[in-house]
Amino acid sequence: MTRGIRNNNPGNIRISATTHWMGQSVNQTDGAFVQFDSAVYGIRAIVRIMRSYQRGGIRTLHDAINRWAPPNENNSAAYVDAVCDDCKVHPYDNVDLETIMPALVKAIIKHENGSQPYSEGQIESAIAIA
């Protein structure tokens, strides 16, 4: 089981001193990555971050993924390619992230964990509460 799945944090969101997430576990044992009480809360966090990127003016998957997974820590080019393939969007196309949110969330989870094990219902529930 990957760290992201084990932590109910399939986006591998790092701990931040300034952010406390809805559903964040009070028994935080991972020193680097947020642990959530359920996967729905971890998926919700991905949605919230993507929505904040869009509010901040990000309009392409190239820009969204490079912010999500910066090149100094990741092979961002491969990440962008994988997400764009899954979302059927070109890296520099202007896109409303909200319209592709289910596919975007699934693509991020798949890239971060090597698989996307969550049901449509879990994804839809997380988007609905985000």
Key terms for this structure?
130 residues, 0% strand
What do you see in this structure?
The model has no long low-confidence stretch (mean pLDDT 97). 49% of the residues lie in helices and 0% in strands. The chain has one domain. By secondary structure, it is an all-alpha fold. It contains 6 helices and no strands. It has helices at 3-6, 39-55, 61-68, 76-87, 101-113, 120-129.
Layout of strands and helices, then pairs:
Blueprint: H1 3-6, H2 39-55, H3 61-68, H4 76-87, H5 101-113, H6 120-129
| Order of helical and strand elements | HHHHHH
Kindly provide the radius of gyration, computed on alpha-carbon positions and rounded to a whole number of angstroms. 14 Å
Largest sheet: none
Helix amount, in percent? 40-55%
What's the end-to-end separation, in Å?
Answer: 25 Å
Number of DSSP E strands: 0
Count of the domains: 1
Mean pLDDT: 97
Q: What is the SS-derived class? A: mainly alpha
General shape: globular
Short characterization:
The chain is mostly helical and 130 residues long.
